[in-house]
């Protein structure tokens, strides 16, 4: 397959340029993954009779490949990043397509593991490619538009589910086949339609763990722990506590997507204007409040309207996480981006390997405490975010570095 320097890509037609490929991949991935996420709670409850503990184990299994994302470094010795990313995208699509063919506990866990390998290895490589291919000055806003593109593709899929699930009697098998098959088809198209883009900064193909990235690693760890609680239990709560059907869960996701499509480009612009520190502080304050209110749903008996609103606002605050990407882009050596993306993904998933299963047992006795734990994690993230400089750069990764390097007053 033809290899092309990134600097020469501007001579290609618009549809064949690197940024277009990033947008297409961003649209393809959530067609499979978000559809799986929308259906999985109803599917496992109706088909396999899962309870809170079972769903915790499902997501623990799903996160194991994320913990081993560091294996991407070894695979990069054999494959180019772009190829590895697209192969992983295809694997995600194929595994999602056959999900309903394995309706037992063991079958669901096995196929979830395969789809998760595709998802996590794709995400690791995709984050690396985004930071290599997008200019630092344009990164916040362009990443916002990429998030909006993914939300837009998912929006179309969810609209189809809402309109047709009951109207024409869709089955889980039909939806999984359609969404997973489309993702795999787009991955195959990208594999053959685009040249291999050569980054101007060849990536190190060995393990990279640098002391000066410690704050980025800590924020990644807390992000992974906190996000797992939301991903695993917020949607499950809507089905278990409030009795949402498939089309109702998907309708809630649709509202969330519409909000993300509108807000993501604005969020990207805001990060560019106000900086990564302010954006992340705002995110973590908002998430702490939201998780405290989630806990109140159980302790004070608040209703479904509040639960649905919190779900939407939670996603809006999560979109500010792109500031963590651009923070790393500003402090990283260009050659470190790919190996550090793999290391960071592993760090992000350390808690994800044990938290879902552990909190699944807590859920059986006190669901509210699960969300209060997430609120505590958001507060810890807030304290860490306050250490980010207003203008981070290599050698000035945290305000603690003031002791070693004179900087203008913040």
Question: What does the model show?
Answer:
The structure is a single chain. The chain has 410 residues and is mainly α. The protein has a single domain, classed as MFS general substrate transporter like domains (Growth Hormone, Chain: A), CATH 1.20.1250.20. Helices cover 72% and strands 1% of the residues. It has 15 helices and 2 strands. The chain has helices at residues 18-48, 52-67, 72-75, 81-97, 105-133, 139-164, 172-193, 214-240, 246-274, 276-299, 304-318, 322-331, 337-348, 350-365, 367-385; strands at 3-5, 196-198. Strands 1-2 form a two-stranded parallel ribbon. α4 packs antiparallel against α5 (105-133). The radius of gyration is 21 Å and the shape is globular. The chain starts with a strand and ends in a 25-residue tail after the last helix.
């Amino acid at each position: 397959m033809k290899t092309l320097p990134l600097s020469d890509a501007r001579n290609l037609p618009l549809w064949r340029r690197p940024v277009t490929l990033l947008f297409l991949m961003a649209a393809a991935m959530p067609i499979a993954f978000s559809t799986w996420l929308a259906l999985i709670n109803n599917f496992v409850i109706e088909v396999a009779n899962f309870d809170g503990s079972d769903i915790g184990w499902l997501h623990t299994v799903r996160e194991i490949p994320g913990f081993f994302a560091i294996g991407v470094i070894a695979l990069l010795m054999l494959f180019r990043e772009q190829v590895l990313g697209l192969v992983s995208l295809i694997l995600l699509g194929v595994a999602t397509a056959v999900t309903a063919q394995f309706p037992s506990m063991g079958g669901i866990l096995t196929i979830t593991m395969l789809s998760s390998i595709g998802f996590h290895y794709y995400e690791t490589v995709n984050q690396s490619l985004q930071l290599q291919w997008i200019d630092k000055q344009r990164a916040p806003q362009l990443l916002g538009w990429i998030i909006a593109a993914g939300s837009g593709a998912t929006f179309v899929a969810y609209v189809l589910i809402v309109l047709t699930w009951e109207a024409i009697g869709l089955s889980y098998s039909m939806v999984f086949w359609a969404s997973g098959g489309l993702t795999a088809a787009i991955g195959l198209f990208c594999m053959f339609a685009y040249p291999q883009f050569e980054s101007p900064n060849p990536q190190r193909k060995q393990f990279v763990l640098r002391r000066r990235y410690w704050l980025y690693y800590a924020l990644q760890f807390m992000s992974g722990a906190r996000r797992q609680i939301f991903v695993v239990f917020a949607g499950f709560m809507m089905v278990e506590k409030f009795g949402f059907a498939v089309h109702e869960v998907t309708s809630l996701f649709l509202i969330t997507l519409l909000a993300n499509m509108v807000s993501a480009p604005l969020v990207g612009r805001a990060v560019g204007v106000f900086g990564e520190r302010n954006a992340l502080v705002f995110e973590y304050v908002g998430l702490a409040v939201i998780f405290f209110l989630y806990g109140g749903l159980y302790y004070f008996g608040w209703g479904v309207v509040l639960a649905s609103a919190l779900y939407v606002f939670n996603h809006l605050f999560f979109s500010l996480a792109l500031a963590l990407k651009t923070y790393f882009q500003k402090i990283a050596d260009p050659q470190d981006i790919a190996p550090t993306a793999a290391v960071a993904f592993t760090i992000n998933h350390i808690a994800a390997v044990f938290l879902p299963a552990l909190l699944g047992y807590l859920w059986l006795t006190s669901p509210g405490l699960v969300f209060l734990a997430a609120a505590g994690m958001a507060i810890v993230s807030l304290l860490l975010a306050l250490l980010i400089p207003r203008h981070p750069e290599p050698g000035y990764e945290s305000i603690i570095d003031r002791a070693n390097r004179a900087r203008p007053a913040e």
